[in-house]
Design goal:
Chain lengths: 195, 195
DNA sequence: CGCGACGTTGATTTGCCTCAACGATTGTGG
DNA sequence: CCACAATCGTTGAGGCAAATCAACGTCGCG
């Protein structure tokens, strides 16, 4: 039970049998149908969430009604509106499943207890957040220094597994371009490659 | 001694007298002249760094030789090439002082000891990194959904203290526009405001 | 079968860049 | 203490990458 979650944690910090037990009890499973919302803007985000199966997106809607994908989450990833979770303020992001999905989640109060019961959990989330932070820094630098075509190439080579599961217009949104423009990029790349 | 550092940590986690002692001994002071490099691309980054006084920038140089400012650091901020530090790989970023500065730094080995001696330090860096991650997420969303003018307005209202200390072309770089374009934005904003 | 979701194409517009030139200010060596 | 060179900000002309808008093709599904 919750095997992938335990593996995910053990990949970074050691756990005793007893701690594994505690962790497994603390996380609850939630199943989502396709296109079901896990969090809406304005909601309180009271859980840390681990994607066990399927694929979800974290996105926001700007003043003009435009959707912007901040992050995808596939199995083995953690997803949340972290700011809303940490500060207990209403969410600014939406979280929605793209395919049928299973999420394991732990309530904030339970997590705060767990930080004291299992100190390695502090360390685990420090490491996870550091890794996430670093990945986001890289994305930031790329968005400043590379063209959309370069970023798309990089995306498909790094996230081949994600690319299969999700529609192209969501990748466009994640990359910060319009679906039309991504289509043009793909056309250009394919004609270049068969030369 | 290292008063601002201790204050910075105590703002997030409790510390005993003894722990304060340990932390103060673990951090070493380093003074920098204006435009002095603290880290160069290719160096190993072996320290976590806290800005005690002054102002620095973290930046990268792309293939075309263009500089991109990833982050500023003023007193009370932590700065690093976190990826290089965590993975012990050569740095991809440069860290350079903009003004005369004082930095407090702790070596990785000493920090790893400290994580075990003072478990609250794990928690402290978890919280700090979570906050940094959240701030970077917000910047990401803004870069996708707002115009350069909106981002500049937001920057000066949030970082008024930084804006004073650093040249305009570095703010332009941070915002992802050319100095010329930022100049045009400022002109437009000033004519609009005196209407 | 028909409809909605998704991808593509092309015409036009726009936000920002590039390049080149020109003040203004600062600081530095003779 | 002045002269000159850097450094920094501004201005304007021309160009390009990507957005917008509108139309159309295709596929899967109720």
């Amino acid at each position: 039970m919750h095997e992938s979650l335990i593996q995910n944690i053990k990949a970074h910090v050691p756990l005793t049998e007893n701690e594994v037990e505690l962790i497994q009890e603390a996380f609850k499973e939630r199943k989502l149908k396709k296109k079901e919302h896990l969090l809406q803007k304005g909601d309180n985000s009271n859980h840390m969430r681990f994607v066990s199966e399927g694929c979800l997106k974290v996105y926001s809607i700007d003043e003009d009604g435009q959707e912007h994908v901040l992050q995808f989450g596939i199995s083995g990833w953690w997803i949340n509106d972290l700011y809303a979770f940490l500060t207990q303020t209403p969410a600014t992001f939406f979280i929605q499943s793209i395919t049928e999905s299973t999420v394991l989640q732990i309530h904030r109060d339970r997590l705060n207890q767990l930080y004291d019961e299992v100190p390695m959990i502090d360390r685990f989330f420090r490491i996870k957040t550091q890794n996430g932070y670093v990945a986001l820094q890289e994305r930031t630098i790329r968005s400043m220094s590379e063209t959309a075509e370069q970023r798309y190439s990089q995306f498909i080579s790094r996230y081949r597994d994600i690319e299969q599961q999700i529609p192209q217009y969501l990748i466009a949104s994640y990359l910060g371009v319009t679906p039309e423009h991504l289509s043009a990029i793909r056309k250009k790349m394919s004609t270049n490659n068969l030369s």
